[in-house]
Design a protein that fits this description.
about 675 residues, Receptor-associated Protein, globular
Length: about 675
């Protein structure tokens, strides 16, 4: 099809546009008009200027977002116009308020013309801020997703190579190994997604394995995976031993993963220092400044409210979100492993389901299950998800707030709350917060300690199993031996695996169900490896040894992270203690004497002082309000610092709840005592 003679009756499919128009800028006007009719003016402009958006298209491909650059840009342009409309509305509203309430006059601008110009400038700034922010966020969002995928691939790649090694060691051919890895996305995440593209290219598009690997190599966002695919292609092309190659590569990329984590830990250390500066030093400086302005007779209370009740919480939430985005590739996940259903004899199955007692049996089974959940809710919450505790504690917390109002512990009016702010804060916030967070923390920490114990003992358990299997001991007997040596949940679950294998004879299914019951990331990955490796190889001891080494490496990486981040967690906690000490000092050294002076000084002298023009007008300083704001700021600071400490230490916000509870109780105790 020529570039200048396109049948006007034939629409141009999106995927053929690049083929038809490799150089869009020299299209004829007729072709451009057809594109405008088909796609609109905006998308046509994007289509005819592809050279400007090559980076964006590469990011979209590497992020696996499923858009071409022109469709994506058209969408974010629409969002940009919506953001601009929001900015126009808010800017106009702010401009009108500044004009009506004398905001421009306080800045020294009294002439109507200049006030109008300033109002227009505020509107323009608001529109540019919202529109520019929306467009920039949309444009660079694929780049952020690409970076996240890159880090995730780099972290999981060594374990994926070990998985491939275990499968190839048993005799699987290369494509079967690649296909098994592509199907293990619940364990190997983004690495599996990359190899899934290879499988799709071979099975769906008919490409050979070498071509599919080269295409994946050109598209992956990870330089480590790109290098691995290059080496893999070379090994396959030369006919070298694939399993030997994978064994060598696993150790090489494990070192790469350690370097990647070291770089990440360095980033977290910088973020912890930024947190101390941005959310401890800066708020203290601003609070002291605003307090001085108030003492000198200025109006700074509104700015203090904004800083404490808007700036500090939103800033901390934004900071936690940024840390979460950076930490997401390093987070362990415990997705449930897929287990193939066993095909029972259809005739026997139909006999069971057609039995008159079958329906009664199923109903009784479901009823017993519901009763067990009602009689043992604690076990259900602990075994499933600690967040389920909020379904119970949040209603109790709301009832506690209602009881506080009914009993009179907390005044029912705004004026009454302002008269006893600390008591009102305790009843309306601190007590509900503790009711909701303490059980959640206990359940989470119990689950976390259980996972740590299992992860710590699991590599040794695998080594014993491997040694026993090498000595000729059957797997069932070896599991019985290890279960006696182990303790706690791991011991009980190993006995279940032993019984499952002894009764059903299906090793793969027993191991996968074992992983799904424990829900420990290291166990999940290892059981997937052993189950599939055992399926392809009769040398179970070697497969278990490979899994033990992989588990030990991952455990060492996690332990190093916890030990190194302990220091930065302490920095965050100490930063809060400094903040609390300074706030208490301001309260006791400045606010308390001023309040006492205001109580003892005659009203006439306070008014006279103000009339005489003295800077300090004691009677006008809202001491009680400032004390309340200081108390609230310390509570917000304590809860936020605790959550960040948990995120740094364990890569989980829930791990910081224990710190938040302690810091909130400490803040409450200090302000009650002073």
């Amino acid at each position: 099809m020529s570039q200048g003679n396109i049948d006007d009756a034939t629409p141009i499919p999106d995927y053929e546009l690049e083929q038809y128009f490799p150089e869009r800028h020299d299209l004829s006007e007729a072709d451009k008009e057809r594109l405008r009719d088909q796609h609109g003016y905006l998308r046509t402009w994007f289509l005819t200027h592809p050279e400007r958006f090559r980076d964006l298209q590469r990011w979209l491909n590497q992020a696996r977002m499923g858009y071409t650059y022109d469709i994506y840009l058209t969408r974010i342009t629409g969002y940009t116009f919506i953001a601009a409309a929001v900015g126009l509305f808010l800017g106009a509203l702010l401009s009108v308020q500044l004009t009506l309430f004398g905001g421009f006059s306080q800045l020294g601008v009294n002439q109507v013309v200049f006030q109008a110009l300033l109002g227009i400038a505020v509107v323009v700034f608001s529109v540019v801020l919202f529109a520019g922010g929306a467009f920039a966020t949309g444009y660079y969002y694929p780049r952020m997703r690409t970076s996240t995928r890159e880090r995730s691939i780099n972290i999981l790649l060594p374990h994926a190579i070990v998985y491939m090694y275990a499968l190839s060691y048993g005799g699987m051919n290369t494509f079967e190994v690649v296909k098994e890895l592509a199907e293990a996305d619940e364990v190997y995440g983004e690495v599996s997604n990359e190899f899934d593209m290879v499988v799709r290219d071979v099975e769906l598009f008919g490409n050979d394995l070498f071509t599919a690997l080269r295409d994946a190599r050109n598209l992956t966002p990870s330089e480590n995976l790109e290098q691995f695919l290059d080496d893999m292609i070379s090994v396959l092309d030369s006919g070298s031993e694939f399993s030997v190659f994978l064994e060598d590569e696993a150790e090489t990329y494990m070192d790469e993963a350690r370097d990647e984590q070291d770089s990440f830990l360095g980033t977290l250390s910088i973020l912890s220092e930024i947190f101390v500066v941005a959310f401890v030093a800066a708020p203290l400086f601003l609070i002291v400044t605003l307090l001085v302005i108030s003492l000198l007779g200025g109006q700074a209370l509104l700015q203090t409210y904004f800083l404490v009740y808007v700036g500090l919480p939103l800033g901390m939430l934004g900071f936690l979100a940024a840390v979460d985005i950076l930490s997401k590739p390093y987070a362990e996940h415990t997705d449930e492993l897929e287990i193939e259903d066993v095909e029972f004899d259809r005739e026997w199955s139909s006999r069971v389901t057609e039995d008159p007692q079958y329906e009664t049996y199923e109903q009784k089974k479901q009823r017993d299950k519901r009763l067990e959940m009602l009689y043992n809710p604690i076990d259900q919450i602990r075994d499933r998800n600690p967040l389920l505790s909020l379904l119970v504690t949040v209603p109790i917390a709301l009832l506690a707030v209602g009881f506080a109002f009914i009993s009179g512990a907390v005044p029912a009016s705004i004026e009454g709350i302002l008269e006893v702010p600390i008591r009102a804060t305790i009843g309306l916030f601190v007590v509900p917060f503790l009711i909701a967070s303490v059980p959640l923390t206990l359940f989470y920490e119990s689950q976390r300690r259980r996972e740590k114990k299992i992860a710590e003992r699991f590599p040794d358990t695998l080594n014993i199993l491997s040694s026993a299997n090498q000595m000729g001991i059957r797997l069932v007997d070896a599991l019985n031996l290890v279960s006696r040596w182990s303790e706690g949940a791991l011991s009980d679950e190993l006995r279940k695996v032993r019984n499952d294998i002894r009764w059903n004879g299906d090793i793969e299914r027993a191991l996968l169900e074992f992983a799904n019951r424990l829900k420990v990331p290291q166990v999940t990955r290892t059981m997937k490896l052993i189950a599939k490796g055992n399926h392809s190889s009769s040398d179970l001891s070697k497969i278990i040894s490979i899994a033990a080494e992989d588990t030990r490496n991952r455990y060492q990486i996690e332990r190093k992270r916890r030990s190194e981040m302990g220091a930065y967690t302490a920095i965050v906690i100490i930063g809060f203690l400094v903040y609390l000490a300074v706030i208490v000092m301001l309260d006791t050294s400045y606010l308390t004497p001023i309040g006492q002076l205001a109580d003892t000084a005659p009203p006439s002298s306070a008014q006279a002082g103000g009339a005489a023009g003295t800077p300090l007008s004691v009677g006008e300083v809202p001491v009680d309000i400032y004390r309340t704001v200081f108390f609230h700021s310390a509570l917000i600071q304590g809860i936020g610092s605790g959550l960040l400490a948990g995120k740094l230490a364990e890569n989980n916000v829930l791990a910081g709840l224990k710190f938040s509870i302690v810091l909130a109780v400490l803040t409450l105790g200090v302000f009650v005592l002073i």
